[in-house]
Amino acid sequence: MDKPDVTLENSDAVYDFYLRHQQNRLLAKAAYATLAAKFRPRVRYADGARESIRELLRTNTSVVLSVNHLSESDPYTVAAAAWRSPLRELIGRTRVLAKDELFSERKLRDRIDLMGSIPVFRGKNHGMRAVNAAGQRMMDVCAERMRRGDSLAIFPEGTCNEGDPTRLQSVGSGVGHITNRAVGLGVAPVLLHMGISYGDTPSGRDRDARGASVYFGAPVTELPDKPAAIARLVHDRLQEAVDGAVARY
User: Mutual orientation of helices 25-39 and 74-83 as an angle, nearest 10°?
Assistant: First the structure.
């Protein structure tokens, strides 16, 4: 399957491709294991969360994983933490939303395609009106992938937090719309929240990202029926996960 150029003008072909794309699961697992060995995050859980996550995955429940966004190294931390947690079972069956500019360089694109990424055309880069149709299609593709059995990982703040790393930025409505559309397709997803802390001086440099504190909140199985309410719930529960990661750094 030929890879289309990831440009806004080519968004129809882009999302046709990522509706079908499937990475090599064995290679993906090897990549996640390598990142876990390199970054060595310290993974902790809310009371009972680890066992609850394991039980949900035994029933093939689709997960919407929300993570706070502190640095360009966050995807590596998330991958490493997934390998060191029950989420290892989802490697190769999780779509990860990633900004479109990451797909412009061939070598980097090959790596993020291996991780199961789906490109997002952001309004801050292209203008809100320009990205509206592509954004709607992206959400439809994510919901359909979940209907087919995939899970989803998202940084719902949409951009790196350059302010106080202990306080979550506003959460966009996208996570609510995607989850709501998946429910409309007959999916019964669970919301899961991963907080990351790099201490006092987070940055995009690998050496600063090693040994991150990662904290999983308890899964949320009862969801509101409106996208905006889902987004508010994600904000509140993700802030709790960030608090947990900061407290245990």
Answer: 100
Please state, in angstroms and as integers, the Cα–Cα distance from residue 113 to each residue in 22, 92, 158, 196, following that order.
9, 11, 19, 23
User: How many angstroms separate the CA atoms of 179 and 157, rounded?
Assistant: 16
At residue 8's C-alpha, the angle toward residues 7 and 9, to 5°, is 90
Residues of the chain with pLDDT under 70: 1, 201-207
Q: What's the CA gap between 122 and 83, in Å, rounded?
A: 29
**Torsion angles phi and psi, residue 188, rounded to 5:** -115, 75
pLDDT of residue 208: 76
Which is nearest to 174 in space by CA: 228, 213, 126, 127? Answer: 228
Domain ranges of the chain: 8-247
Superfamily of domain 8-247: Glycerol-3-phosphate (1)-acyltransferase (3.40.1130.10)
Which tokens is 219 given? 């899964």
Provide the 3-class DSSP secondary structure of residue 166: coil
* Element of type H or E holding 28: helix 25-39
pLDDT of amino acid 204 = 54
**Closest C-alpha to 137, from 9, 10, 30, 11:** 11
What's the sign of the alpha-carbon dihedral 155, 11, 185, 229? positive
Separation CA 171–CA 155 (nearest Å): 9
| Token code pair at residue 244 | 């947990």
In whole angstroms, what is the distance from residue 227 CA to residue 178 CA? 8
